[in-house]
Amino acid sequence: MPSTRKLLSYLPALATLAAISATGAGMIVLARRVWRSNVDYRGPYRRPLPPRPAAALPRPARRAILIILDGLRADSALTMPTLVALRQQGVAFIARVGQPSLSLPGWTAMLTGAWQEVSGVTSNWYPEAVTIDSVFSLAQTAGLRTAAVGDRAWRQLFGANIDAGRYCTWQKKLGGDRRVADANDVIGPRDYADDAVILSSDAALTAAAIQLWQREQPGFMVLHLSAADNFGHGYGGTSPQYVGGVAHLDRLLRQFLASVDLSDTAVAITSDHGHTDSGGHGGPEEVVVQSPLILAGAGVASDDGGDYRGSVAQVDIAATLCTLLGLPIPAHNQGRPLAEYLLLDQAQQARVALDWLEQEATFYQAYGERLQAAEPISSGVSTARLEDEYQRGEYATVMQAAHQGIRTLRAAARAVRAERLAHERLARLPLSLAVVAAPAAAAALAARVGMLQSAAAGATANLLYTALYFGRGHRWSLSIFRTDTGLEAFFRQRLLDATISNVAASFAYGLLGGGSGKGDSLAYLYKLQAPTLWAISGAAAQAAAFYQQWGTRYEWHLPDYKTAFKFYLDLALVGGYGMSAAAGLAAGLLGRWLRR
CA 245, CA 226: separation in Å to the nearest integer? Predict the structure, then answer.
């Protein structure tokens, strides 16, 4: 029987094992908190801003409609005869979508002109109403009736400023209780494979929109149809079902537009995001972040050619709709009115530019205050002087100065944001270095002799994990999810992959002679933990690089979503390695025993 001294000699190595395991558990908790920090982000920018002086703005259109064909790819829009004909009557663009490229953030960007960092709407799990100015609220304030037809989330987001609406509620959201839906709600599909109801619910919404448009005579309306998105999620963005859904949308679009008089009504048709070929969105893939935008009807200049004229931003839609309706630009707007493509004379374009400059000056002054800028953010342009020049008819001078002032404001805002980020990044640097150095130092100490062999085993674990990840067809992007219900299972699979990789590398390390040599049990128990420590070190280095840049709590800014998803997985990877440390040690002991 082992002596007490012999048993006590194991304690330091077992304490190390416990520390590694505890670190792994902590990283899993941290990964979940980082995810929630993104989902729960609201930001400091949503508070009301001072009202701007009323100005007599031009109104090229008496009424306006925003039609959102959810999930429609820009290339698929080229196959829709109704859209092709409409492009030739107006002008078409590629609208760049923000990150994450999800529906509720996209709808909010279109209606408020504010990106996700400012609006606070960062996910489809956003549970509140939008708190900043929107086309809906401004139209209502100006005395225009407003309307919306589409997913029930529109009521949640903008319901207080929608005078008339007809909504679609998914069957799965009813939970067996139809009281969740209003009596006049369209009941949507059970899931993404409910093909017939996907088609029929959009047809019912289109019929309701025609009736509402004719009966209520709204000055501004949103029509939102989801067939393309539903078939994209269910079957993929190039599937026969998706192609058929796009054709169905084209027919519904033609029916609706037949009830619209384009001589007094402006129409903007777009999508909130695209879809990958395999189905999914949320990430930065080009096919996902490119959406079509077609402007036509009253107040819109005819392009004749019908080709896409280039790239604009999704946040440009709100300011453009407001310009068409003679409304002031939303207070938190970060887009631009596409005034050069509207039927405005030089005096009218100058007036729009002045309103835009005043909006930006008010917004960015508050932006700087909320980021505690050392100096107020200023355009360097006197709006009073520009107003005098406007009254003298110097319209070209006014537009040039206003646009230069806006560029100055935005550059100053970027500098303030970058300065605060740089300060926080510097403060995070010591911990970032420690996160990298600690497991590497522990691994080096554990290995002592044969460090290169143990480091190779740790690198092998990371390579195995990477092979498992990409071998399943995954990418470092939210777009890998076809639906929003698979996140938890995906997270558990990553922990399992980390365990498999760590156990396999540790077994090979023991089998090939790692951990052997002279020394007591304390020495070889330490050595057999070296591969796990090296694997953790490699994953932690990648996580630390992101942490140093963006942190783990998002209270005033959002991270770079192109790398944020990988950071989330890196934390999960460290957690999986740590939680499987005991299994890795056992595998190493087994390999060592087989070798002996």
Answer: 9
Cis bond upstream, residue 100 (ω within 30): yes
CA distance 60 to 503: 68
The structure tokens listed for 15 are 């304490």
Q: What percent of the chain has pLDDT over 70?
A: 93
Quote the CA–CA distance of 365 and 114 in Å, as a whole number: 16
What is the mean predicted confidence (pLDDT) over 76-98?
93
Please check whether residue 403 is in contact with residue 353, taking contact to mean a CB–CB distance below 8 angstroms: yes
**Distances from the Cα of 372 to the Cα of 12, 375, 416, 525, angstroms:** 49, 9, 9, 53
pLDDT for 9: 56
Looking at the DSSP bridge assignments, the partners of residue 311 are: 94
What 3-state class would DSSP assign to 342? Answer: strand
- Alpha carbon distance 481, 104 (integer Å): 17
Return all residues near 418 (Cβ < 8 A) that are at least 6 apart: none
Residue 535 in tokens: 């694997």
Residues near 227 by Cβ (< 8 Å), separated by ≥ 6? Answer: 198, 199, 202, 245, 246, 248, 249
How confident is the model over 443-502, as pLDDT tens digits?
A: 776 656 567 888 888 899 999 999 999 998 888 898 888 877 778 888 889 999 999 999
Please answer whether residues 299 and 349 qualify as being in contact, where contact means their C-beta atoms are separated by less than 8 angstroms.
no
Alpha carbon separation from 449 to 253, 441, 454 (Å, rounded) = 72, 14, 9
Q: Residue 379's Cα: distance from chain center in Å?
A: 30
CB 502, CB 531: distance < 8 Å? yes
- 340 close to 316: Cβ distance less than 8 angstroms: no
- Cβ atoms of 481 and 491 closer than 8 Å: no
Query: What is the helix (H) or strand (E) element at residue 166, kind and residue range?
Result: strand 164-169
Cut 0.90: pTM above it: yes
> What are the beta bridge partners of residue 457?
none
Both tokens assigned to 52: 């701007």
What's the rounded Cα separation, in Å, for the pair 88 and 91? 7
pLDDT in tens, 555-583: 999 999 889 999 999 999 999 999 998 99
Torsion angles phi and psi, residue 528, rounded to 5: -70, -15
Taking the C-alpha atoms of residue 421 and residue 412, their distance in angstroms, rounded to an integer, is 14
* pLDDT at residue 8 is higher than 70: no
Contact 112, 318 (CB under 8 A): yes
Question: Following DSSP, what letter does each residue of 180-221 receive, concatenated?
Answer: GS-TTPEE--SSTT-HHHHHHHHHHHHHHHHHHHHHH--SEE
Q: At what angle do helices 451-471 and 487-511 cross, to 10 degrees?
A: 150
Strand 63-69 to 265-270 pairing? parallel
- What does 244-273 look like in DSSP terms, one character per residue? HHHHHHHHHHHHHHTT--TTTEEEEEE-S-
3-state secondary structure of 92: strand
- Reduce the DSSP state of residue 291 to 3 states and report it: strand
Question: Whole-angstrom Cα distance, residue 514 to residue 500?
Answer: 19
**Domain positions in the chain:** 4-40+448-595, 63-343, 346-424
User: Which numeric CATH code is attached to 63-343?
Assistant: 3.40.720.10
